[in-house]
């Protein structure tokens, strides 16, 4: 029996708990607004646009040890989709067991099988353990690119502006 599988609704509480653990690790303990109901709707609602894979604990009855949450993006240059990995998390006590590699390999397998051009993700510049892990897999940093984000009050203001206000 494989430890790797597609997430099911019963996994939502464990995935949400690991999302919260990841936020703590990334020094944003109060940033998670997601709830079990929201996550369940995103992953398993009428038209899911977000997907997850999990790794079961090798010890029966124990919670899942890691997850990858992802969605499709699109490359106008390549003319095909890619996978954006939003979160990859393995519980600290399970790190070093190959579970992160297992999850990333599954996303790469899906991308290859479906003809997608790439799998990409963001990593905080101070997160050396993750950066080293990704480089060891053959992933390359996107030097020369910066991530931009429009959110919060700025998103609301910009998204609420009229066409005349935006072009002014």
UniProtKB/TrEMBL annotation:
Q: Which SUPFAM superfamilies match?
A: Acyl-CoA N-acyltransferases (Nat)
Task: For this UniProt record, give its keywords in alphabetical order, as a comma-separated list.
Answer: Acyltransferase, Transferase
Tell me, what is one Gene Ontology molecular-function annotation carried by this entry?
N-acetyltransferase activity
Transferase as a keyword of this entry, yes or no, is yes
| Ranges for domain N-acetyltransferase | 2-168
Q: What is this protein called?
A: GNAT family N-acetyltransferase
Give the species this sequence originates from.
Arthrobacter psychrolactophilus
- Taxonomically, the superkingdom here is Bacteria
Can the keyword Metal-binding be found in this entry's annotation?
Answer: no
